[in-house]
Design goal:
The structure is a single chain. Helices cover 37% and strands 15% of the residues. The protein is α/β, with parallel strands linked by helices. It has a seven-stranded mixed beta sheet, sandwiched between helices. A four-stranded mixed beta sheet has the order 1-2-3-13. A three-stranded antiparallel beta sheet has the order 11-12-14, with helices on one face. Strand 1 and strand 2 form a beta hairpin. It is globular and about 60 Å long.
Length: 410
């Protein structure tokens, strides 16, 4: 868990975090895409206290009211796209569950041959075994040893990099890897790539959806980083005008407590019977109450709309910074209050040293960022809580601009 700027968080409120000495930062991290509704909102704290005083703080597989209310609420939020919800603890666990559903479904309809899971190069789906097998980052799989022949990665259709974005390229990639379309049980894709903030071309995703329908293939949307307003839509996949078969949620679902969800259609979700899909802390009452409070705040305070409005300010400002520093910034990706700034060196390759200098400058001057990530550690992500207003957002952007200026002179 090391590698982050050495700041010990002592308390937090709204879009600000503090250390024990009283130093204050404008939070451009959201605790790594978690605190969409801000840090420690009063409504969430009141819900947690109420649940603690109620006395039911654990029930394992026995039903509890907060769990029931939350699964109903999540299904309703999808607008009829899905009719089932299974609660878990982390985003990686949600991905694991989706992969298990896909493989089980493929075995049922394909007689054992329909087992291939397709993902995209550069994708990050979590730290657990199945999630890293589905990852598109090769070094994350080194510890596994023997590769799993049931997982395959194909190129990300990156229009900006000049790569082929045609869907024929996707099909050709499967053919080149010896994969028959009938062998594929699922395709999993982050709604934007976590390491770079890149979105898929919309026509590509719409063709992928049609192809999956024709071939009885699961389309799994990994919304762990994108969900609940981050990109200016409630769910990131809405930018593509498509509907997934399975939606994996986590991070911002509760605004801070460990809970995740797998949302899906009963056609796929009902492949398991009673007792075949359980989790010790599924729908933990405290976490469920926090999630319900978070969802209330996102709706009441129109945080999806604020993400869209403040995102316009953020991306316009970052475009101006990039225009003045084309020598070190190759791209600014993202939508809403999600931005990823890619730093490069003279050779055009990712420049992790410059990215780290930018982060360190921001930390010293009152803006909280987490360590750079992505290829070569050259990407600085900016994602403040969705409660942030224009004045503090512009203040934070100004400090970021000063950080880039200072780094470009070194």
């Amino acid at each position: 868990m090391s590698g982050q700027p050495p700041i010990v968080w002592d308390k937090a409120s709204g879009f600000q975090v503090y250390d024990a000495a009283g130093n204050c930062w404008i939070d451009f991290s959201s605790g790594v895409l978690v605190a969409n509704c801000g840090h420690g909102p009063a409504e969430m704290k009141a819900a947690l206290v109420d649940q603690i005083e109620n006395g039911v703080i654990f029930s394992y597989c026995f039903a509890n009211r907060p769990r029931a209310e939350l699964v109903k609420r999540l299904v309703e939020l999808t607008g009829g796209r899905v009719d089932r919800c299974f609660l878990l603890t982390t985003g990686a666990e949600a991905v694991e569950n989706a992969l298990k559903l896909a493989r089980t479904w493929g075995k049922r309809v394909g007689g054992g041959n329909k087992r291939m899971i397709v993902s995209f190069e550069g994708a990050f789906h979590g730290r657990t075994l199945g999630a890293q097998l589905a990852s598109g980052i090769p070094h994350l799989k080194d510890w596994i040893g023997i590769p799993d022949s049931g997982f395959v990665t194909v190129p990300f259709p990156d229009e900006a990099a000049g790569d082929s974005v045609s869907f024929d390229g996707f099909l050709s990639s499967l053919t080149e890897r010896g994969i028959a379309e009938s062998d594929v049980c699922a395709v999993i894709a982050e709604s934007y790539q976590g390491g770079t903030g890149r979105f898929y071309p919309t026509p590509f995703m719409q063709q992928l959806r049609c192809w999956a329908d024709k071939g009885d293939v699961f389309y799994i949307a990994d919304e762990v980083q994108a969900g609940f307003g981050r990109t200016g839509r409630l769910f990131g996949f809405e930018h593509y005008g498509i509907e997934p078969d399975i939606i994996c949620c986590g991070k911002a679902l509760s605004g801070g407590l460990p809970i995740a969800a797998v949302l899906g259609n009963s056609r796929f979700m009902d492949v398991f019977g009673p007792g075949e899909m359980t989790s010790t802390h599924s729908g933990h009452p405290l976490c469920a109450r926090a999630a319900l409070a978070s969802l209330d705040l996102i709706e009441r305070d129109r945080l999806v709309e604020n993400s869209r409005a403040m995102g316009a300010v953020l991306h316009e400002s970052l475009a101006g910074i990039k225009a003045h520093h084309r020598d070190i910034i190759s791209a600014v990706n993202g939508r809403g209050l999600l931005a990823a700034v890619l730093f490069v060196g003279d050779d055009g390759e990712a420049d992790g040293a410059t990215a780290m200098r930018v982060v360190e400058f921001c930390i010293r001057h009152g803006v909280m960022l987490y360590a750079p990530l992505g290829p070569g550690g050259g990407t600085v992500k900016i994602n403040p809580p969705l409660v942030i207003g224009e004045e503090p957002l512009r203040e934070g952007i100004q400090i970021f601009a000063e950080a880039v200026d200072a780094s470009s002179r070194q």
